[in-house]
Design goal:
0% strand, mainly alpha
Length: 44
């Protein structure tokens, strides 16, 4: 799966406080479920 990290950062910056808390909670659950970190590559 490939994600445009610049777009993700832009989308996150446009969230309000409540939406950011929900987003962070969702990602925390996903990372915990993975068990081990994945490799993330940023566009150069």
């Amino acid at each position: 799966m490939f994600i445009d990290l610049d777009q993700v950062n832009s989308d996150i910056n446009n969230l309000n406080i409540e939406e950011k808390a929900d987003w962070e909670s969702m990602w925390a659950e996903k990372w915990f479920a993975l068990g081990e970190p994945i490799v993330v590559h940023k566009k150069i």
